Structure formats: C-alpha cells, structure tokens
Amino acid sequence: MIPVPAVGVVCLKGDAVLLIRRGTPPRRGEWSLPGGRIEPGERLADAALRELREETGVEAKLIGLVDVVDGLFPEVGRHYVLIDYAAIWTGGEPVAGDDAAEAVFFPLEEALQRVDWSETRRVIRHAHAMATAHGARRGADGLVIASEPDSVARGQDDR
Hints:
This protein has one domain: Nucleoside Triphosphate Pyrophosphohydrolase (Alpha-Beta Complex), CATH 3.90.79.10. Strands 1, 2, 3, 4, 5, 6 and 7 form a seven-stranded mixed beta sheet that branches. Strands 8-9 form a two-stranded antiparallel ribbon. Helix content is 25%, strand content 40%. It is built from four helices and nine strands; from the N terminus they run ββββαβββααββα. With 159 residues, the protein is of the alpha+beta class. The chain has helices at 44-56, 108-114, 118-133, 151-154, and strands spanning 3-13, 16-22, 31-32, 35-37, 59-73, 78-91, 100-107, 137-138, 144-145. Keywords: Hydrolase.
C-alpha cells in the first residue's frame, strides 16, 4: 500500500463538532470528520478548507494543526496519512456533498459517542482543547471565536 496524503477538519461551532456520515469506503456509513485527498500542488490548509466546503457546505477558519495520523485500511487496500486541523465555523449550514451521506453538528459528547474510531475521538478531544488554549472565546451569540490565526492556517512559507 502506497501512503496517500489526506486532510481532515475538526470544525467547531460553540460546543458542537461537525461530523459527516461516510458515503464511500473506507468506513462507509460511519460518522467521521470531513476531509479527503490533497490535490497535486495544493497547500494542506487549502485542501482542508476545500474538503470541508465540498463535503459539508460549511466555511471555517483554521486555528492549527491537531495531529498526523496513519489510517490503515487493509480491507480496501489503502493507507492514508491523515493531516488533521482544528477549525472554527464561520458560516454555512451543513449539507452533505461530495462523498458524504450526511453532515451534522453534534454536541461534543454526542459526537464522541457517534465516532467509532478511537483515533478520531482523540483528535476531536485534542482540537476542542486547542480551541480553548489558542485563545478561543465565546461571542455574544455563544459561538466560539478564534482570536489569532495560527501560522499553519496562514500557510507561511518562511521556514
């Protein structure tokens, strides 16, 4: 199996997490994070926001990199290198698109119960903690607002 780079997004709206029900293998029918393969020449952050938009219709602001996870799916002969970002919802209502069968914001604890894969649950918990640690605060409407974007989200090239 040749590793395939892919992105995932933990999109937070208040205390809710955006999940999709997968419409295609691997893990078809299971709840997961929006995401998918990176296009040739596409920056990681751009791929994350594109996949989020394509699968859910939602717009968000990335606040940082959560983790990089190996997704080994021998039943379909795939090895994904999943690059997961944390994001704060900025607009749009979830509508399933692309290869998602459903797209729904769930309260954090319910989202964690719906996800079968322990690595996804861990990434969601970490992203939720990151939102707090990165200075996220609640606006007058109760939604989480990120203060400053992370350099990862800005796609800086000055390394």
